[in-house]
Design brief:
Strand order of the largest sheet: 5-4-3-6-9-8-7
Strand content: 5-15%
Oligomer: single chain
Shape: globular
Number of helices: 8
Structural class: alpha+beta
């Protein structure tokens, strides 16, 4: 089956399925209150083309994203196909840097939620002593703030900071998470968000936190990975939230 985007370019069935899933991801971010007006991106690599990515059109709210109006960009965030909508090359700098160097990464999400931005302000960063934070042990990297992330010259330094990890805490800023596909990226973002929320709440309560040992943290990481691999839990979790969103949101999201 072939459908057409707003610029009349043909879209094959595999790409359309990916577009629908990515549009759902954008809608979930809005549904869960993780959005940032018209800013930030969730990007996914197109199948069969290592240097082409789907991303939101610049200027649209996440609730306005549809499978058809997602734009295709190159690693520099420039339009790789004609579109009625504009891209945001400057805002794609972080995504382009990771996609270009990490071919194991299929999807990247960047958010500035209040809990994540608050944790990014702290010298000690994300705690691994919560149920959620323990699952991120060994997966979190940090990048010092250099100003608004717009410029190509920062790319190499961001990549050096990220290394082979999946979560990049952008100090004084927010977070970027990356995984091999959309559903695993969504779940990772949810875990990071929950870790930050619990850490912020715990910080409001007097008294010392109970520290977990490295051995317990490693066990949590391994257990979580086994669950997601053996039960396809990321797909189930993603689909459950899409069903919830569609139940509670207007019919225009029933895609």
């Amino acid at each position: 089956m072939i459908v057409h985007s707003t610029d009349s370019a043909p879209i094959g069935a595999d790409e359309m399925a990916l577009r629908r899933q990515l549009a759902d991801f954008y809608h979930l971010v809005d549904f869960l209150g993780w959005g940032e007006l018209i800013f930030n991106h969730i990007s996914v690599r197109l199948p069969g083309d290592r240097d082409a990515y789907l991303v939101n059109p610049f200027g649209l709210h996440y609730s306005e994203i549809t499978p058809e109006n997602l734009v295709v960009v190159n690693v520099d965030g420039e339009l790789a196909r004609p579109s009625d909508h504009a891209a945001n090359p400057a805002g794609f700098a972080l995504h382009g840097a990771i996609h270009s160097a990490r071919h194991d990464v299929g999807c990247i999400a960047h958010t500035h939620t209040i809990p994540l931005s608050a944790v990014a302000m702290k010298v000690d960063g994300l705690s691994h002593d919560t149920f959620y934070g323990a699952q991120l042990w060994g997966r979190v990297a940090y990048h010092d703030f250099e100003g608004i992330t717009l410029f190509a010259e920062e790319r190499g330094r961001m990549l050096a900071s990220l290394g082979d990890r999946s979560v990049l805490v952008l100090r004084n800023h927010g977070v970027a998470v990356c995984e091999r596909d959309i559903t695993r990226t969504f779940v990772l973002l949810w875990i990071v968000q929950r870790a930050a929320e619990v850490q912020c709440q715990a910080g409001m309560i007097p008294g010392l936190d109970v520290a977990l040992t490295p051995e317990v943290r490693k066990a949590c990481v391994a257990s979580a990975e086994r669950m997601f691999e053996s039960h396809k839990a990321s797909q189930m979790l993603f689909d459950s939230q899409v069903r919830l969103m569609r139940r509670d949101r207007p019919a225009s999201w029933q895609r």
